[in-house]
Design brief:
Growth Hormone, Chain: A, 554 residues, mainly alpha
Length: 554
């Protein structure tokens, strides 16, 4: 989802957080005439540009997800199918802290144009892929662009709008994002059924071009031009970024191979997993060293309870969000035998409820400035929806799974889209870009775990239940780590009864485990949010990255 955040000053230098940050009173401060005057056509043109940019994220979240089983089959990806999603999340997560520093050093405009161009390039590579390796490489490039896109939208909105008012403008962007997510599943299904799967990626090219042109024309914001490019490059936290990226890659390798290539107890899994976790611990220790002048993820961001709770809840919600989002379509296609297009229509409920629900939650947040109750209600609804999905089967009524989708979609959208303002409220203005990038990283990092763990659970239990199938070929296929790539209507209907019914039952039972095991993760979020403190949302805007003055001639 698209989310809003605040900006920081040009330097990441330490500014002590007031001891009473969590108890700060939300004082109403009126906008000055100068701030009002800034909301001219340039302001609204930037908002429109960000709306178009958000469509790129919407296309990724819905079009590709719905079409993924078909793409896997067409390119004969086999056991490497998990990399199509995970390498996207890997590069998306890895670049976000770095993008936070780059946006401060070189300005929002240059970074925004660069990441949109990178996303377009990655989409072109994916669309033209002739083999799995090329597709995965394209997804890596595409992910790097997507990670920057999600972060820069938050940062730019933060440059223009105070935190307390931000929900109103993010709601506008969410409305456009909602159009993309609503039409995405249906478009994705139509594409793979009537044209070529390649257009799942090529569709990003015109959207990306429109976003690039609008940003080029209207995104004229201030940035620090006093230092040379060489001096700015020297200020980057190369060691911190290197440790973080290497650790993320190591963990991803372990999660991707687990159960699909090697068993969890194999040294092939344990070694990279332990190295990655150890690297994360090293990263935290390094960021706290006194000689690191401008850490990519300053530890002072986490010196209060609310920040730690929100950071943890973001990781768990992201994990469970993609956990659900990748396997609800499998229920429609492998159990209910819906076509990709029909599955896309079935997923419309998720978008039609989730996006408006998120927008309403943001408007409520702007109106009353209270996020704790939204987090409690959101996590409760999300747990209810996912828990109910653990009992669905091929005979579940349409009304039943629609209400399950409504609960899950409304819950996760309310939660995710109000976590970032809560995290931002607990840190100082000077740390807003670093906070945005750090929060975006943990969100994407959660996606990696969500897809990998849920896929491993599905494959594991599909293999466990596969012996009940009479056909030897099917048993061998489902016990070799290929259950996910086989979970399509075409695969199931390629067999005669009673084998067809047996396959559907195996997929049903495996999906039950996937959803049931996911519920405790959301339960942890619910418990954590009970201990949050309400931190007042600032109503004043203090930034050096706002709109350029008209006198500059821009």
């Amino acid at each position: 989802m698209v989310r809003g955040f605040r900006v920081c000053l040009p330097s990441f230098k330490h500014q002590n957080l007031p001891e009473n940050t969590e108890d700060r009173v939300d004082v109403q401060i009126s906008r000055t005439p100068d701030e009002k005057s800034r909301r001219d056509y340039r302001f609204w043109a930037i908002i429109i540009a960000l709306c178009i940019v958000s469509l790129l994220s919407a296309a990724e979240n819905t079009v590709v997800v719905t079409s993924l089983p078909t793409i896997v089959k067409k390119l004969n990806v086999g056991q490497d199918y998990v990399w199509i999603s995970n390498v996207f999340f890997l590069t998306s997560a890895a670049v976000q802290p770095l993008c936070g520093q780059l946006s401060n050093l070189f300005g929002r405009r240059h970074l925004a144009l660069s990441i949109v161009a990178i996303y377009i390039l990655g989409s072109g590579i994916c669309g033209g892929a002739s083999n799995p390796a090329m597709l995965i490489a394209g997804r890596a490039v595409q992910g790097a662009g997507s990670g920057g896109i999600n972060m820069i939208i938050d940062v730019i909105i933060s440059d223009l709008v105070p935190l307390r008012q931000r929900g109103n403008f993010i709601a506008i962007i969410l409305a456009v994002y909602g159009i993309g997510t609503t039409l995405g599943p249906f478009i994705g299904g139509i594409i793979v059924e009537n044209t070529s799967w390649r257009w799942v990626f090529y569709i990003n090219l015109p959207i990306g071009a429109a976003a690039f042109i609008l940003l080029f024309l209207f995104l004229r914001v201030n940035w620090d031009r006093s230092a040379t490019a060489y001096d700015k490059i020297r200020r980057l936290d190369y060691i911190g970024n290197g440790i973080l990226i290497a650790s993320t890659v190591s963990i991803l390798i372990a999660l991707t191979w687990a159960d699909a290539v090697y068993p969890w107890g194999s040294w092939h899994i344990l070694v990279p997993l332990l190295v990655g976790v150890g690297g994360m611990m090293l990263f935290v220790a390094f960021e706290g060293l006194p000689f690191v002048a401008e850490p990519v993820m300053p530890l002072r961001l986490f010196n209060n309870r609310t920040a730690v709770i929100v950071f943890t809840a973001t990781f768990l919600n992201s994990l469970q969000n993609y956990w659900a989002f990748f396997f609800i379509p499998l229920y429609f296609q492998a159990v209910r035998l819906a076509s990709p297009a029909e599955s896309g229509v079935d997923l419309l409920v998720f978008s039609l409820v989730g996006v408006p629900g998120a927008a309403i939650a943001l408007l409520v947040l702007s109106k009353w400035g209270r996020y704790k109750i939204l987090h409690i209600v959101g996590s409760g609804l999300f747990a209810l929806g996912i828990g109910l999905f653990s009992i669905v089967d091929q005979n579940t009524s349409t009304a039943a799974w629609v209400w399950m989708n409504i609960a899950a979609a409304l819950g996760t959208s309310m939660l995710m889209n109000t976590l970032l303002p809560a995290f931002q409220a607990s840190v100082e203005e000077a740390d807003q870009a670093a906070a945005t990038a750090s929060w975006a990283f943990i969100r994407s990092f959660g996606n990696i775990w969500g897809v990998a763990i849920s896929a491993a659970i599905f494959n594991t239990f599909a293999a466990k239940y596969a012996p009940s199938i009479d056909d030897l070929r099917v048993r061998e296929l489902l016990t070799s780590g290929n259950a996910y790539s086989s979970a399509t209507k075409v695969f199931v209907e390629s067999f005669e009864e009673p084998v067809q019914q047996q396959i559907r039952m195996v997929f049903t039972l495996a999906l039950h485990k996937v959803f049931l095991i996911g519920v405790p993760f959301i339960g942890v979020i619910f418990v954590l949010t009970l201990f949050e403190k309400e931190v007042g949302l600032r109503t004043e805007l203090k930034t050096e990255f706002g709109l350029e003055e008209r006198e500059t001639g821009r």
